[in-house]
C-alpha cells in the first residue's frame, strides 16, 4: 500500500492508465496514489517551532489518522515530511545515520545546515525516483534556531519560515499577515498551531490532530492538539 502525505495533491483511480500523461501528470506508479498534508516551521530567538497535521491517505481513503510527520534527525535537529510516506521515512533514516556518524567522527553536534544539505543531496540526486518535500529545522551553536525548506526537486533554501504540503496553499495569506521577524517562542507556537488548524479546515487532505515540537538549546518539547480543540477561528 502506497501511503502519501504531501504536495502535489492528486486524486487517482485504479481505472486510469498509469502510462497516460494526461491522466497521470505526476508519473505515479500503477496503483499508487498521492494526497496531501500541512507542515510548517518558524524559528524564534533561541530555537524553532515545527508542526504538522497527522493525516496519511491512499487516494480518498484515510489510512492513518494520527501519523507522526515530525521526525528527529539528531539531538536538536528535526524534519517535517511531506510527499510519499515511504520515501520520506527512508530519507530521514539515511540522514539520521549520516549525522550520527558525523557526530562521532568530529566529536561535536552537526549543524542544521549540514542536515539540510544532506537531505538536499539525497533528494536532488534521486529526484526522478522520489516524491519528497521536507522542512529541516532545529537549533545549533552557529545559527541558533534555523529553518531550511527542501522542495520536491531538491532545491534547498534557508527561510524565515517554511510551510509545505497541499494545505499550505490555503494559508499563505494568513501567515503573511501574522508572521513577523523576531517572534517569541509563545508567539511562534501560537501561529504554527493556528495556521495549521486553518489549513486542516480548508484542505480535505489535511486533518487529524496537530503535532508540534519546540527545539531549543536545552531540550526538545513535543506536544499535540486534539482535533476537537483546534484553535480555528479569528
Automatic annotation (TrEMBL):
<comment type="function">
    <text>Component of the proteasome, a multicatalytic proteinase complex which is characterized by its ability to cleave peptides with Arg, Phe, Tyr, Leu, and Glu adjacent to the leaving group at neutral or slightly basic pH. The proteasome has an ATP-dependent proteolytic activity.</text>
</comment>
<keyword id="KW-0963">Cytoplasm</keyword>
<keyword id="KW-0378">Hydrolase</keyword>
<dbReference type="InterPro" id="IPR023333">
    <property type="entry name" value="Proteasome_suB-type"/>
</dbReference>
<dbReference type="GO" id="GO:0019774">
    <property type="term" value="C:proteasome core complex, beta-subunit complex"/>
</dbReference>
<feature type="region of interest" description="Disordered">
    <location>
        <begin position="1"/>
        <end position="24"/>
    </location>
</feature>
<keyword id="KW-0647">Proteasome</keyword>
<dbReference type="InterPro" id="IPR001353">
    <property type="entry name" value="Proteasome_sua/b"/>
</dbReference>
<dbReference type="GO" id="GO:0005737">
    <property type="term" value="C:cytoplasm"/>
</dbReference>
<dbReference type="GO" id="GO:0004298">
    <property type="term" value="F:threonine-type endopeptidase activity"/>
</dbReference>
<dbReference type="InterPro" id="IPR016050">
    <property type="entry name" value="Proteasome_bsu_CS"/>
</dbReference>
<feature type="compositionally biased region" description="Polar residues">
    <location>
        <begin position="12"/>
        <end position="24"/>
    </location>
</feature>
<comment type="similarity">
    <text>Belongs to the peptidase T1B family.</text>
</comment>
<keyword id="KW-0865">Zymogen</keyword>
<feature type="active site" description="Nucleophile">
    <location>
        <position position="37"/>
    </location>
</feature>
<dbReference type="GO" id="GO:0051603">
    <property type="term" value="P:proteolysis involved in protein catabolic process"/>
</dbReference>
<protein>
    <recommendedName>
        <fullName>Proteasome subunit beta</fullName>
    </recommendedName>
</protein>
<dbReference type="GO" id="GO:0005634">
    <property type="term" value="C:nucleus"/>
</dbReference>
<dbReference type="InterPro" id="IPR000243">
    <property type="entry name" value="Pept_T1A_subB"/>
</dbReference>
<dbReference type="InterPro" id="IPR029055">
    <property type="entry name" value="Ntn_hydrolases_N"/>
</dbReference>
<keyword id="KW-0645">Protease</keyword>
<dbReference type="Pfam" id="PF00227">
    <property type="entry name" value="Proteasome"/>
</dbReference>
<comment type="subunit">
    <text>Component of the proteasome complex.</text>
</comment>
<keyword id="KW-0539">Nucleus</keyword>
<keyword id="KW-0888">Threonine protease</keyword>
Amino acid at each position: 500500500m502506497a501511503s502519501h502525505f504531501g504536495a502535489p495533491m492528486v486524486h487517482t483511480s485504479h481505472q486510469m492508465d498509469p502510462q497516460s500523461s494526461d491522466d497521470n501528470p505526476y508519473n505515479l506508479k500503477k496503483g499508487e496514489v498521492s494526497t496531501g498534508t500541512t507542515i510548517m516551521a518558524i524559528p524564534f530567538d533561541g530555537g524553532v517551532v515545527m508542526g504538522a497535521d497527522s493525516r496519511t491517505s491512499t487516494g480518498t481513503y484515510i489510512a492513518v489518522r494520527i501519523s507522526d510527520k515530525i521526525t528527529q534527525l539528531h539531538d536538536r535537529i528535526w524534519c517535517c515530511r511531506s510527499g510519499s510516506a515511504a520515501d520520506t521515512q527512508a530519507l530521514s533514516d539515511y540522514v539520521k545515520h549520516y549525522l550520527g556518524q558525523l557526530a562521532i567522527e568530529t566529536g561535536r553536534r552537526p549543524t542544521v545546515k549540514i542536515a539540510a544539505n544532506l537531505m538536499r543531496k539525497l533528494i536532488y540526486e534521486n529526484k526522478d525516483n522520489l516524491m519528497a518535500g521536507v522542512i529541516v529545522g532545529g537549533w545549533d551553536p552557529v545559527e541558533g534556531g534555523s529553518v531550511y525548506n527542501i522542495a520536491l526537486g531538491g532545491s534547498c533554501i534557508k527561510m524565515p519560515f517554511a510551510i509545505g504540503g497541499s494545505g499550505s496553499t490555503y494559508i499563505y495569506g494568513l501567515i503573511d499577515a501574522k508572521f513577523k521577524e523576531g517572534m517569541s517562542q509563545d508567539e511562534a507556537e501560537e501561529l504554527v498551531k493556528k495556521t495549521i488548524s486553518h489549513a486542516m479546515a480548508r484542505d480535505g487532505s489535511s486533518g487529524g490532530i496537530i503535532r508540534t515540537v519546540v527545539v531549543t538549546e536545552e531540550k526538545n518539547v513535543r506536544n499535540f492538539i486534539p482535533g476537537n480543540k483546534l484553535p480555528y477561528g479569528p
